[in-house]
Amino acid sequence: MATVKTADRYFDDLRSTRVWRSVFRSGTGSSTLHRALAIQQNVFLHLFSTKVRTRMLSVSATWYLGTLTLGTFLILVATGIPLMLYYHPSAPQAYADTKDLQFVVSSGMFLRNLHRWSAHAMVFLVFAHMFKVFYRGAYRTPREFNWVIGVVLLLITLLLSYTGYLLPWDQLAYWAITVGSNIASAVPVMGNKIHFLLLGGNAVNANALLRFYVLHCMILPLTAIFFIAIHFWRIRKDGGLYSHASEPATLRAKATSSSTTATEGQ
Amino acid sequence: MADSKEFIAGVDSNAKKSPRRIVFITRRTSAQVKVDTEDQVQTFPEVLFRAAVAIQVLAIALVWIALIFNAPLEGLADPSHTPNPAKAPWYFLGLQEMLHYFPPVVAGVLAPGLVVMALIVIPYFKVNIEADGLFLRDRQHRLSIFYAVASALSIFLVSFKVYAALVPTLIMVGLMLIAAQSSPQSSSAFRRYLAARPLSYWVMTWFLFELVVLTAIGTFFRGPGWAWIWPWQGF
């Protein structure tokens, strides 16, 4: 206990310096007010509520799937940026760069492995998150629109993964994208136009690689961040993480069914 | 404004846990507290700490996977040499499996388009908000609709020889039949569980089941020419 207090005091000293106070406005102290301010006065953290129902912290309530999805996204950004330093989006140089990552660049193999497995994990986790939210009934009023944003994020995730799939420019990438993009040609009337727009040609070629690179490293991540921010903010605006037992309707039903005396919330 | 005697004021006594609240209650309403405020924790630091731990555990697991398993890298892209089978990424293999049975405009455009539309409109339809067991009310009417939909879907799948999608459908139909024969008073917990499932649960579970089965078949059970193979045969 004593050591914890010492560490706390050092941290408090740091927090009371003028420089720290100029950056973080919540101030020193560990009162409820200061803890609330730490969330509320931070541009990133203010997306979240200052308080969360205790029951929503249990693993069974959410399985932390949303948090873990964010975790994969952060890993993907952190590994994706160094990968960009070693990569030219041109055919066939892209393939040589991927080979270099495997055999020449220090830890290049590890970076690429982590990026790829995290991408698969993110697609899986997004689906898992969606089904968990559905089975908990957490899409119900007033959270309808956040569910819709979630579906948009699912599509963005699939597109991110799909566009990244082409970048190694190997046989696996080339033919997977060929198979996938041919589906676009099946759209009635517009099919071939959409196919051409997507690939910058009638087949997967160097133009397609460049387009997918720009989509994968610029447009889609920025779009994802935009929607992720709204997604998080809406959790707070829609009344916090959904808990069936805390819904107004459930509480009303419980209150009327019990005696007229005050009832205990769980 | 109204006369000041129209309401009384009170103070939330639980000031240690939550910021002090002052409540104004008009004369006509009861001042009884019917529901206690639920126990809450501060996001900073409790929730952020837990989120950080969860992400750390995930990161450690992924780092281990990245250290042990190498990402695949095949030969240089070659438009003149088509591998057989040419497979899409795993999350699209359910779609590719559907393309095997239906024309591209149905399997590649119509079906995924309808799925996305269906997902988006879920919260806006009352049927998805209802939490009562499907067959608990209006039983005869709902059963006849269920029989009609289940047989139409099965006949459709059989006529296109989509046995891969037929099997999960029949299993779900079987479970729904058990649900129809069960009630909240049934002796087994499983039957009570099934009886309480609403329609939205059945539709979504059917979709999830099909998604998993079709994706698994496309990933592990399809070889050259999209012919059926067993995972241990290799190709």
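DSSP finds eight helices and three strands in chain B.
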